[in-house]
């Protein structure tokens, strides 16, 4: 598997463009519109926020996905179009219509996605200018720019692509994502757009996307807050002429590659988490089942006290054990083994004679590994989380004002 | 109802003492042992952490409470006696035995409670010296000192008392509590000790205590982390000679007073929350039922993004609506009314034409009120939470090291 710098344009027949439309405020240097277009109709799958309070484009994209076909995705940053009522929904429909007219495609095949401030009406005149610029500037070299245009508090653009040799030939998967705050473990708070030139029927694509998301974007945590706009879309345009059929060896290979792409971007989101100075992998093994392992890993990944300890480079296993203990999963604490940076700090629920200095030194690394073994079965799961720093607080106390 | 400064010594027949035993580290100025003694055997009720990983004294106190009678409570700060294995439990039994021998009472009537660092063996020799000092110094004027001795990261001692006129005469309730971090909404992370000279059978006392805790200590939130040591104990020694019988008017009055005492201390815990600069009351009304209202209020109270916005004095209703939306309760967001500091900021799910400057000015107050009306029924609940400040992160990144 190789990666290229083309992002969502790596697969055949996808072009993109970015524009600075001043959605949040006029700034000619800040890209805030991105358009992805497929030459041919693509099957489409989507996974969305489960928040009751969801944005107009989420409601709209669910409908596009239920149709199973898409040609384009229009994304803006700077305005989430959430809590904007029926006007917000009308603005989303209007956005799709503008794109459709410019590209001469059916409006019901245009996905729309928004991220940014909640509760502010979408500035449709400025957005329309941005859409026009994008439609006029489509190219297969704009993947990185598009990834930049969907950023909000992100500090780096996130995109990747892979080439995947299958039985009949090679297909490509490209992707980009954004999200640095409002990252919660149940449908991570972010936007991600994935393209592929494989030919995949919509139901299979939906199934594979949902599985991949459950082990990637739904296993990360920055601040436990689930956004109103979370969206992962995957478009498969078939232009490689290589088909991925259900239950074939190629299907398993494609699903694994899709999961790799999602995990790679999910980890990039955590690394760029607001104020993050650490990237922490929490692995739980030996649980009664995978769901229990996941629940415990999530509790630790979400714990403010664990996250501040990671920030403080403190091997505070007491907080980790306490978070596992309140996760809701019943386990025997006297059988708990805990490893921090590979050092066995807790054996059968009690501290070992480990060297505190050694572990602390090791926690100065930007990457921290925490592993819990419950000795109760074969269930396992990994969550990725950031630490909680003073910088996080500063960023979020000042966000709107 | 009047309050006095005597804390747990306000009811007849309760004496207390505090000592500096150097449990965590030698410091002659830091009180870290407190002993509460009742002249006569008291009925006892307890509510404890639901954490699977719980401390030895929690396991032990559950047994004392199942016996229904207690004469004394021995508390230490500086060491939680959690994750200390069978030795930890043996140390707790030994603590009760030392107290029992000194006071000439049955050891199974001695409650033991600990708070502090997890995973460190209890220094029994130093604790024994502390117990001896306490047993020799019992008085009815040491309530404030005892409240000071159970503090960890608390910055102020928390105690209160009330006199309650009942049909046959006056009874008194006294109480003290500690806790500033590891405060979670499901069995708050803290210790609280309540005394009364009313005569109340143990089952009724247990029922009233559980009810009071559910609407006080279980409705507060500082950092969502549930501790291994949460304990609320209530001792009723009957020395007022006034009985509180089940289903009597006095019973309702006593239950209300007990809840008032618990709410008062619970609010004091939030006000003294680690790094807290704001005291925020989250009230949800118009929910389908009280449980739904509670779930939504808890989600907002726990949200890192809401808490940083409170810190930033930012009327960020988008984050509040988003937290309500992911709480798990299904409601109609287009009927949501939201008030911040009494200002109607969201009507039927959309922003009103309120003055941002006015609300921001009002949020400079240390107390912030947030009210959500769902227009879906008569369910209501209030949660109390602190803000999330950079100081919180500094405190918890540095706690152990």
A few lines on this structure:
The structure is a homodimer of 401-residue chains. By secondary structure, chain A is α+β, with helices and mostly antiparallel strands.
Describe what you observe in this structure.
Two copies of one chain form a homodimer. By secondary structure, the first copy, chain A, is an alpha+beta fold. The first copy, chain A, has two domains: 264 residues, L-amino peptidase D-ALA esterase/amidase (4-Layer Sandwich); 119 residues, Roll (Ubiquitin-like (UB roll)), CATH 3.10.20.340. Chain A is globular and about 70 Å long. At the A-B interface, helix 8, helix 9, strand 13 and helix 11 of A face helix 8, helix 9, strand 13 and helix 11 of B.
Distinctive features:
seven-stranded mixed beta sheet; 401 residues; L-amino peptidase D-ALA esterase/amidase; globular; Ubiquitin-like (UB roll); alpha+beta; homodimer; 27% strand; eight-stranded mixed beta sheet; 15 strands
The CATH C-level name of the largest domain in chain A is Alpha Beta
Count of β-strands of chain A: 15
Largest sheet of chain A: 8 strands, mixed
Low-confidence stretches of chain A: 184-188
User: What order do the helices and strands of chain A follow?
Assistant: EEHEHEHHEEEHEEHEHHHEEEHEEH
Major protein interface:
A-B, 69 and 68 residues
* SS content category of chain A: alpha+beta
Overall geometric form of chain A: globular
Average pLDDT level of chain A: 90
Cα end-to-end separation of chain A:
45 Å
Assigned CATH architecture of the largest domain in chain A: 4-Layer Sandwich
SS strand fraction of chain A: 25-35%
- How many domains of chain A? The number is 2
What is the count of helical runs of chain A? Answer: 11
The CATH superfamily name of the largest domain in chain A is L-amino peptidase D-ALA esterase/amidase
What is the C-alpha radius of gyration of chain A, as a whole number of Å? 22 Å
């Amino acid at each position: 598997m190789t990666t290229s710098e083309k992002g969502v344009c790596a697969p055949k027949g996808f072009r993109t463009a970015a524009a600075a439309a001043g959605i949040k405020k006029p700034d000619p240097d800040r890209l805030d519109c991105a358009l992805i277009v497929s030459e041919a109709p693509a099957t489409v799958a989507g996974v969305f926020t489960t928040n009751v309070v969801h944005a107009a484009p989420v409601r709209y994209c669910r409908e596009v996905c239920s149709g199973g076909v898409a040609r384009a995705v229009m994304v803006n940053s700077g305005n989430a179009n959430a809590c904007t009522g029926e006007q917000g929904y009308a603005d989303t429909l209007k956005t799709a219509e503008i794109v459709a007219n410019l590209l001469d495609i059916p409006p019901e095949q245009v996905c729309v996605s928004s991220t940014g401030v909640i509760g502010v009406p979408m500035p449709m005149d400025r957005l329309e200018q941005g859409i026009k610029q994008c439609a006029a500037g489509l190219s297969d070299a704009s993947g990185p720019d598009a990834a930049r245009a969907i950023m909000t508090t992100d500090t780096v653009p996130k995109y990747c692509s892979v080439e995947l040799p299958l039985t009949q030939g090679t297909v490509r998967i490209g992707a980009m994502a954004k999200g640095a705050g409002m990252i919660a473990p149940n449908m991570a708070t972010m936007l991600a757009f994935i393209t592929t030139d494989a030919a995949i029927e919509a139901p299979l694509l939906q199934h594979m996307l949902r599985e991949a998301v459950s082990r990637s974007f739904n296993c990360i945590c920055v601040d436990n807050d689930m956004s109103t706009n979370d969206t992962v879309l995957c478009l498969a345009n078939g232009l490689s002429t290589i088909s991925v059929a259900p239950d074939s060896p190629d299907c398993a290979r494609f699903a694994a590659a899709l999961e790799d792409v999602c995990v790679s971007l999910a980890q990039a989101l955590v690394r760029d988490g607001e104020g993050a100075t650490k990237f922490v992998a929490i692995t739980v093994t030996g649980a009664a089942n995978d769901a229990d392992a996941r629940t415990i890993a999530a509790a630790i990944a979400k714990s403010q006290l664990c996250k501040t300890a990671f920030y403080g480079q403190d091997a505070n296993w007491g907080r980790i054990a306490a978070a596992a203990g309140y996760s809701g999963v019943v386990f025997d604490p006297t059988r708990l083994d805990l490893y921090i940076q590979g050092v066995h700090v807790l054996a059968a629920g009690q501290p070992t004679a480990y060297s505190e200095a050694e572990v602390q030194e090791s926690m100065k690394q930007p990457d921290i590994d925490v592993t819990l073994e419950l000795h109760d079965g074969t269930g396992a799961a990994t969550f990725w989380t950031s630490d909680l720093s003073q910088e996080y607080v500063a960023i979020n106390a000042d966000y709107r004002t």
